[in-house]
Design brief:
about 210 residues, Tetracycline Repressor, domain 2, 2 domains, elongated, DNA-binding transcription factor activity, DNA-binding, DNA-binding transcriptional regulator, AcrR family, transcription regulation, DNA-bd_HTH_TetR-type_CS
Length: about 210
């Protein structure tokens, strides 16, 4: 039997065992960060052999990305009827910027985004990609409702909320909470993005 034939006959890692390994991956990631994470460390945490991991994942890039993709988060984009309500629902809910695990995970991988091109490409495509699509849907709905001012650059506004909050977390050392998210939305994001009221558009009569 050749190595290729043996690999084909080995059972795939799936179901509960796969989820256990992905959970172990996130645990190791939180403990040591992406740069120091190894397949050996994940195997030890999951009480599995390294060979078991390689039956399903070719390297640590594919393993970590798979774990991040399967981590908790909203499965549907909420539709509250307003830009502010939608942003609060996404960023203050499970998997949002007030979720300690989400913030810790970002801190664990941020250095790898500049050091590991293969990981950075996969992370932006498979982890950030769906989040950006969900954010774009929120802004598209707001535009369809007539909430947004003309000429708004969505490429600038979509990441602005996360950028402001993560700056306060990682640079300023603050702990994110719903109050912080709401203040940024109410005082910065919504006022800057919103269409002026009719009286403001026409000018106030003298």
């Amino acid at each position: 039997m050749t190595p290729t034939e043996a690999a084909v006959q080995r059972p795939r890692v799936e179901g509960d065992r796969e989820l256990e390994i992905l959970a172990a991956t996130l645990a190791v990631l939180a403990d040591v960060g992406y740069d120091r994470l190894t397949m050996d460390a994940v195997a030890t945490r999951a009480k599995a052999s390294k060979a078991t991991l390689y039956r399903r994942w070719t390297n640590k890039v594919s393993l970590v990305i798979d774990a991040l993709v399967h981590s908790k988060g909203p499965h549907e984009v909420p539709d509250t009827g307003s830009l502010q309500g939608d942003l609060e629902a996404v960023f203050c809910g499970m998997g949002g910027l007030v979720d300690p695990e989400t913030v810790a995970t970002f801190g664990a991988v941020v250095t790898a985004l500049t050091r590991d091109p293969a990981f950075a490409e996969a992370f932006r495509r498979d982890v950030l990609g769906p989040k950006i699509e969900a954010s774009r849907l929120i802004w598209q709905r707001a535009a369809e409702r007539g909430e947004l001012r003309d000429g708004l650059d969505l490429d600038l506004f979509e990441p602005a909320l996360a950028g402001i909050v993560l700056h306060r977390v990682f640079i300023m050392g603050e702990t994110p909470d719903p109050g912080l998210i709401t203040r940024v939305i109410e005082q910065i994001i919504v006022p800057s993005a919103s269409r002026p009221a009719p009286s403001q558009q026409a000018g106030t009569p003298s």
